[in-house]
């Protein structure tokens, strides 16, 4: 039996073997997404309302609020289970029913912060130190390679948000048209590449160079090296974002992408986006998506806003305690640390962590 035809599971992964388990899912496993969601009950919503009121009345800065500042007697358990599902199960969770349509902006931010505290420590998402990000078209040029695409209405290619263990979105409002959300199992993509082109799996486990898009921590280079397939202490963790690989080519020190790199990216994108491996939906106001950045990929379709319908989501990058071990190469994308609960974020000198009320 060749290595590529053996099987293993997370926690005891043998490199270049097919991985079995809940995070190696396909679209056929979830034919009705609504059945896989946590639907908030009236009791859950009532508890969340009270928690939001308590937090806002406390006088604390939102970023200083911790779980001792509120109580969710019946909701905390399901929220913690959703986090466990994202970290150690299938790699994702969906929640429906946060009443964002009747919340003020401060109430929306407080409610989301309260949810996020069940899943980990929020880490900064950009050079401005934003702990809650606003996913909204604010007119940035998507054709500029240095643009972070979440601030545009352009499609975002398949990727994971590398500087955090978990990424979450809360939908506040939808576009006039478009803005579909999709996600797929990077573990299943790995398995399919092993089956179809095992030589490319070894390319993806080799050196790849990642551009920082000018968000460069003090003392660091504007790029760093991190493989796509990372086998470490019995786990496969996948880090992928092809536009960052292409952008790294602007630096003379970075080796040029070769034919096998381009072949690997083409196959990776084809598998991630295919109907067999990907799930897709338009998030509705009040929907929350929670994904593992180590076992899931995601994408966002292009969208068109109108005066009456503007797409606006909130985002959290989260570092939970007790997550998987990561190899030392992740220190470059995880703010200098690979320690669970302490790693993650984009840390720029002089940028104090903050929670903006609006996109900026």
TrEMBL record:
GO molecular function: oxidoreductase activity
Species in which this protein is naturally found: Gonium pectorale (Green alga)
Protein name per Swiss-Prot or TrEMBL: TauD/TfdA-like domain-containing protein
Gene Ontology process terms (BP): antibiotic biosynthetic process
Domain of life of the organism encoding this protein: Eukaryota
Domain TauD/TfdA-like residue range list: 61-317
Keyword Oxidoreductase: yes
Gene3D superfamilies: Clavaminate synthase-like
Keywords linked to the UniProt accession: Antibiotic biosynthesis, Oxidoreductase
UniProt keyword Oxidoreductase present: yes
């Amino acid at each position: 039996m060749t290595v590529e035809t053996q099987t293993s599971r997370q926690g005891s992964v043998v490199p270049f073997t097919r991985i079995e388990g809940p995070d190696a899912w396909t679209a056929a496993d979830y034919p009705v997404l609504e059945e896989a969601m946590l639907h908030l009950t009236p009791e859950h919503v009532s508890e969340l309302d009270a928690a939001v009121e308590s937090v806002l009345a406390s006088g604390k800065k939102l970023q200083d609020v911790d779980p001792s500042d509120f109580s969710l007697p019946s909701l905390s358990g399901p929220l913690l289970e959703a986090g466990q599902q994202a970290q150690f199960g299938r790699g994702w969770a969906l929640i429906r029913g946060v009443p964002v349509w009747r919340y003020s902006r401060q109430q929306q931010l407080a409610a989301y912060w309260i949810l996020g505290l069940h899943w980990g420590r929020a880490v900064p998402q950009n050079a401005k130190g934003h702990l809650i990000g606003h996913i909204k078209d604010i007119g940035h040029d998507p054709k500029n390679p240095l643009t972070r695409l979440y601030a545009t209405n352009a499609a975002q290619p398949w990727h994971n948000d590398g500087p955090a263990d978990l990424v979450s979105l809360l939908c506040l409002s939808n576009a006039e048209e478009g803005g579909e959300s999709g996600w797929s199992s990077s573990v299943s993509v790995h398995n399919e590449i092993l089956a179809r082109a095992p030589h490319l799996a070894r390319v993806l486990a080799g050196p790849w160079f990642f551009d920082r898009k000018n968000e460069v921590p003090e003392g660091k280079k504007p790029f760093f090296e991190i493989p796509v397939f990372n086998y470490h202490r019995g786990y496969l963790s996948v880090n992928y974002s092809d536009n960052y690989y292409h952008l790294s080519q602007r630096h003379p020190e970075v080796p040029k992408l070769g034919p096998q790199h381009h072949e690997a990216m083409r196959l990776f994108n084809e598998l991630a986006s295919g109907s067999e491996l990907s799930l897709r939906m338009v998030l509705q106001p009040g929907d929350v998506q929670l994904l593992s950045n180590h076992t899931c990929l995601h994408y966002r379709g292009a969208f068109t806003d109108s005066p009456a319908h503007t797409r606006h989501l909130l985002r959290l990058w989260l570092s939970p305690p007790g997550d998987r071990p990561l190899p030392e190469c992740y220190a470059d994308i995880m703010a200098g640390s690979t320690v669970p609960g302490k790693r993650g974020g984009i840390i720029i000198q002089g940028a104090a962590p903050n929670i903006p009320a609006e996109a900026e």
